[in-house]
């Protein structure tokens, strides 16, 4: 069972998904969570504090995805592919949450720092794949920038109706897998 605070965060995320940042008010969140309109104020001082809590929740999900991929995947490259696929799915399913995370990662506040660090956990997967000889040597941060640029771009192109992803490709994570495969093939050619 979710705590009241967790219910508030979940309700805020749903409002963000359906109406964007302007739809997230503490009163609307109270209504959506099925609690009094004033109850969110007992947990969050203002809308900014609530948005920060949502971002922290997303960051924790990102870290869990990376940790799980490391355990489940047979190789470092497979772990990277799994995580890239999860990021892509998140960006597609929850574009407003993904944009909030990206916007927050630009800020200099503590949550922005946490968001940047969370994105860079993928650099650890890149380094693992480099050590295993599955990806070319180079600055992991630059490789992560390429990965996230492609993931964000693919999600945006689909959201704006400029590309159509087949349901089977969507469920299989084919596009992110293709991105990682392209990166790994570049390594094989460069190392040959």
UniProtKB/TrEMBL annotation:
Keywords of the record, alphabetical order, are: DNA-binding, Transcription, Transcription regulation
In terms of SUPFAM superfamilies, this protein maps to: Homeodomain-like (SSF46689), Tetracyclin repressor-like, C-terminal domain (SSF48498)
Question: Is Lyase tagged as a keyword?
Answer: no
- DNA-binding residues per UniProt? 25-44
Q: Which GO terms describe its molecular function?
A: DNA-binding transcription factor activity; transcription cis-regulatory region binding
The record's listing under PROSITE patterns reads:
HTH_TETR_2
Q: Which Pfam families match?
A: TetR_C_33, TetR_N
Please give the name of this protein. Answer: TetR family transcriptional regulator
Q: To which species is this protein native?
A: Roseiarcus fermentans
């Amino acid at each position: 069972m979710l705590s009241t605070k967790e219910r508030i965060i979940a309700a805020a995320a749903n409002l963000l998904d359906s109406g964007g940042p302007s739809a997230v008010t503490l009163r609307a969140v109270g209504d959506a969570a099925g609690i009094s309109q004033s109850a969110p104020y007992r947990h969050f001082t203002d809308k900014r504090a609530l948005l920060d809590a949502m971002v922290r929740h997303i960051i924790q999900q990102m870290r869990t995805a990376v940790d799980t991929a490391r355990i489940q995947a047979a190789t470092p490259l497979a772990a990277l592919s799994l995580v890239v696929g999860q990021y892509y799915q998140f960006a597609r399913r929850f574009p407003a949450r993904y944009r909030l995370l990206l916007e927050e990662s630009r800020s200099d506040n503590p949550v922005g720092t946490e968001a940047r660090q969370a994105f860079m956990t993928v650099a650890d997967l890149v380094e693992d794949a480099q050590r295993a000889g599955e990806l070319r040597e180079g600055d992991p941060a630059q490789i992560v920038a390429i990965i996230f640029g492609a993931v964000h771009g693919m999600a945006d192109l689909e959201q704006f109706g400029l590309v159509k992803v087949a349901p089977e490709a969507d469920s299989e994570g084919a596009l992110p897998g293709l991105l990682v495969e392209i990166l790994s093939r570049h390594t094989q050619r460069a190392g040959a």
